[in-house]
Design brief:
The complex is a heterodimer of chains A (108) and B (115). With 108 residues, chain A is mainly beta. Chain A is built from no helices and 9 strands. In chain A, the strands form 2 sheets. In chain A, strands 1-9-8-3-4 form a 5-stranded mixed sheet, with no helix packed on it. In chain A, strands 2-7-6-5 form a 4-stranded antiparallel sheet, with no helix packed on it. In chain A, a hairpin with a 4-residue loop joins strand 5 and strand 6. The termini of chain A are far apart. Chain B is built from no helices and 11 strands. In chain B, strands 2, 4, 5, 6, 9, 10 and 11 form a 7-stranded mixed sheet that branches. A 4-stranded antiparallel sheet of chain B has the order 1-3-8-7, with no helix packed on it. In chain B, strand 5 and strand 6 form a beta hairpin. The interface between A and B is medium-sized, with 20 and 24 residues.
Chain lengths: 108, 115
Amino acid sequence: DAKTTQPTSMDCAEGRAANLPCNHSTISGNEYVYWYRQIHSQGPQYIIHGLKNNETNEMASLIITEDRKSSTLILPHATLRDTAVYYCIVSSNYKLTFGKGTLLTVNP
Amino acid sequence: GAVVSQHPSWVICKSGTSVKIECRSLDFQATTMFWYRQFPKQSLMLMATSNEGSKATYEQGVEKDKFLINHASLTLSTLTVTSAHPEDSSFYICSARDRTPNEQFFGPGTRLTVL
C-alpha cells in the first residue's frame, strides 16, 4: 500500500473549518483513501473514504486532487470534541496501515 | 455507523496467565476481522487478519502461538494472549469489515495490564 504523509500537528479555532492535508503521491489506481480519527484511549472512528470523487457525509468532506496524489479532510465546523489524532490511510485490500497521523487540537 | 464491541474493556492479570478478548460486530456480519495493538504514544500496529471459518493470517513478527485468534462466527472473533508477560501490556483493538465494500469499523479497545 502507498505511504501517506501528514503534518504532525495542527490547531484550529472552535467553530471554524479544520482542513487536514495528506500526501499520497505513490497511490495506485485501485487504492482508496480512508480517514479515521482516534480520541485518546479509544478505538479509531471511521470518518470517510473515497476513490476519485470528492465525498461528503454528516461528519466531514473529503477532497481528492485530480491526480489523486493528495487529499484534504474538511471538518466544516470544528468543536472541542473533534480534538483527536487523524489518520489518512491508503489501501486497496482492507488492511489499514496506520502512520503517526495529525494531532488536531481545537481551541476554544 | 456499524457498531463493534469488545469485552472486557480492561483487564489486569498475573504474568504467566492467559487472557481472552472478545470482539463482536453487533449489527452486521463481519467476514473479516482485524486485531491491532497499540503501545503508549505509538500508532496502531496490525497483528493479524481473521476470516470467518479459516485460520488467521499473522503479520511478520507476531507469534501465532502466543496470540491465538478464533473467528468462529460472522459476528465474533476472539484473541487469546497466552502466557502473558509484562511486555504484552498494551491496548488491543479489533476491527470488523462488513459486507459493504471498503468500510471497516473499530471496537473501543481492551487495555491489558500484565503484572
